Amino acid sequence: MTSEPILAVENIKVRYSGLPVLRGVSLWVAAGETVSVVGANGAGKSTLLRAIMATQPVFDGTIRFLGREIHALSTEAIVRLGLVYVPEEKMLFGPLSVEENLRLGAYVINDAARIEQNIEFVFSLFPRLKERRTQAASTLSGGEQQMVAIGRGLMSNPRLLMLDEPSLGLAPILVDEVLDTVRRLKAEGMTILLVEQNVREALDLSDRGYVLQTGRMVKEGTGQALLDSDIFRQAFLGI
Amino acid sequence: MEILLSSLAAGLLIGMALALVALGLTIIFGVMDIVNFAHGEFLMIGMYTGLFTAQATGLDPLFTLPVAALVGFLLGGVCYYGFIRFLIRGPMVAQLLGTFGLMLFLRNLALLIFGSEDRALHHGLLVGRSIDVGMGVIIPATKLAAAVLAIFSFWAVWMLMNRTHVGKALTATALNPQGARYMGIPTEKMNALAWGIGGATVTIAGALLVNFWSVNPFVGLLFTMIAFTIVALGGFGSVRGAFFAALVVGLIMEFPGFWDFFSYTFDIQWMYDIPMTSFKYTWVYLAYFIIMVARPRGLFGWKH
């Protein structure tokens, strides 16, 4: 964890029609780490990820990925560098089959053998998707759709996987399943930036965490340290 | 009976040619939800391209199709990069008025360059030839060629969309552009490609049409309207729908033939007296009206 961070966000500011949403947010992720960003609704968590992906204009600050300034790049170019975002809204290609969705996730990969390897990996991670490979994505349950979204993100061998509220709207048993998947990916050595509403579980499985409150990072530390901290209680129990 | 069969054959043939006219409109809508009011003007440019290439080179108009396709592809790409991509950030009204403006611009540019007179081809391998298939049905070679090429173009587009990497990326862009960008798909290029393919198919249609249809700068609107009817009937964005809807519209355009068949067969005096051919397109637009009221999403639904 002493290595150069692969993602370094410094003091970024984002505004929605003049109103500040992120008021100078910094964060870093080192290779192999799992980092969580937690915070109440409207704290700016999703905005932060969208700003990193260049789908949300950044007003000030720098974003470096693998030592490269990326904030002037297009979303597609950022994906090509190996920074993959699994959006909260999932954004599946509904009428297409599960397998077609997964294969589109490997769009930036030209090596056919590797695509097959990746699809086998995703199917080993989510055996249920293998059973439903020919089914249209829109006909799946919420939990299965989330599996497709995560699997699709894994198809391009990301250097950093950003998961935006992967357990949102899922039944408690499925929440555990999704978070177990994140644990498994972490064990496989994947670098993960996780935004979660299940604060305890997220911080519990992460190496480090950040607490975002109304557009500011108010606390940073190891998962346990954050769970014990006063500011954490304030941010979550005070609402 | 001959009238009935000839009308059926003529309707299906013109339907297939019209399918090719409508193909580009439905592709562009399918990928980026824009209705291109200048579609008929693209066709008009295809007709002039076919005509002038044939006249300048002495080649048969059939061999001008690759030239027309290239012109159409570039025209579509240039319109997208130079104009449309600024519109898609705006509201729906801006898009409608924008492509409407493009229509006026292209039409008047053609008027400036080519003048207002009708021009037609009077030579060519197919011009004036026909095939007698018996039962009184005579098929003009030009229309048969247009029909065959229309089928081929639909097949080619279907293969592109369903069997190739770039086709999958186009489909993804159509279904969810933001999701596609998160997959690393360059959606701007995909939009431009959709305009290129849309432009190329309609200019091919133009170069085929000029074999049996004279061209002037105002020819576009008629075809825009017919293409709209087809695409509305088939379902906006549906390639398969456009094909079958075009056959239906082709048959509707032959309504006067069917009318004559009835009046002769059953010898109904009052039917003779109505000059039905004068109202040829009325039925097409009436069909459009009925579709919009009864089934606004078309036969096959949007984007399928």
Strand order of the largest sheet of chain B: 1-2
Greatest chain-chain interface?
A: A-B, 25 and 18 residues
Topology order of chain A in helix (H) and strand (E) letters: EEEHEEHEHHHHEHEHEEHH
Largest sheet of chain A: 6 strands, mixed
- What series of H and E elements makes up the topology of chain B? HHHHEEHHHHHHHHH
The Cα radius of gyration of chain A reads 17 Å
Strand residue percentage of chain B: under 5%
Quaternary organisation? heterodimer
Helix content range of the residues of chain B, please? over 70%
Break the fold down into its secondary structure elements and pairings.
The complex is a heterodimer of chains A (239) and B (304).
Chain A: E1 5-16, E2 19-30, E3 34-38, H1 45-52, E4 60-65, E5 68-69, H2 75-81, E6 83-86, H3 98-105, H4 112-125, H5 127-131, H6 142-154, E7 160-164, H7 172-187, E8 192-195, H8 199-205, E9 208-213, E10 216-222, H9 223-228, H10 230-237
Parallel strand pairs in A: 3-8, 3-9, 6-7, 7-8
Antiparallel strand pairs in A: 1-2, 1-4, 4-5, 9-10
Helix pairs in contact in A: 3-6
Chain B: H1 2-32, H2 39-57, H3 65-87, H4 92-114, E1 130-132, E2 138-140, H5 141-163, H6 165-175, H7 177-182, H8 187-209, H9 220-234, H10 239-253, H11 255-265, H12 269-272, H13 280-294
Antiparallel strand pairs in B: 1-2
